[in-house]
Amino acid sequence: MNRKVKEKEDILDHYKKLVEFLGIVLGENYEVILHIIEKGNSYVGAIANNHISGRTINAPLTGLALKMMKDKTYQDNDYVTNYKGFTKLGAEVRGSTYFIKDENNELIGMLCINFDSSKHKKIANDILDLVQTQLNMISPIADETAGSIEEKIEERHDHEIIEYFSDSIEEVVHLIVDPVLLNENVVIKQEQKIDIIKQLSKKGIFQLKGAVSQVAELLNISEPSVYRYLKMIDKDKK
């Protein structure tokens, strides 16, 4: 084992222990995850409080994590904080990611912390419901303002970073590509297949181990065809 590989393993072992520590200290409302980044294979290397997203060891990276790798967000940033995420069950979380880099500023891992605010939101909503009930009892015009607080809570901003959690490459693909195009009963043209491969490549899906074979199966094409389309896309870029 060469020195660089040993140093990388030592760094990641340190963060694996940190995941366990933070999971205990922060408590059950915080999911702590270590993503290990290797050439051609990126996966969950350690996780604490995984009841929040349902992900497990060796699960693939999310679409957002892959995009940050593809865009090399880590080169100009040490971390990204307070972005929105949604679990498979639809629960909303707030996520932050710390980029773990080697001496050459290359990404070797990501430490992610996801806060499940559902319990806090329930308490807040219960309080709001109580206040609204009190207002309705006091003032007959209270109905005119009903819903105004909820409308503010439900505001959405197009520029906001959103992460969708998944534990399989197939789920990541379905989150990136229009599900209609992945329906086995739908016949799609070659141009559409190339466009899908382009979308997935842009998001960094092919950095995951086994992605080519699974994408080929989803599109009902051969693995060589996927590689051929990828070459065509790279050629067009140049």
In short:
The chain has 238 residues and is α+β, with helices and mostly antiparallel strands. The protein has helices at residues 3-26, 63-70, 118-138, 148-153, 169-176, 190-203, 211-219, 223-237, and strands at 30-38, 41-48, 79-86, 92-101, 107-116, 162-164.
Q: Uncertain segments of ≥5 residues (pLDDT<50)?
A: 139-159
Shape label: globular
Q: Give the topology string: H per helix, E per strand.
A: HEEHEEEHHEHHHH
CATH homologous superfamily descriptor of the largest domain: PAS domain
End-to-end separation in angstroms reads 37 Å
| Fold-level CATH name of the largest domain | Beta-Lactamase
Strand content: 15-25%
Radius of gyration: 22 Å
- The main sheet orders its strands as 2-1-5-4-3-6
Question: Would you count the extended β strands for me?
Answer: 6
| Level-2 CATH architecture of the largest domain | 2-Layer Sandwich
The first-level CATH class of the largest domain is given as: Alpha Beta
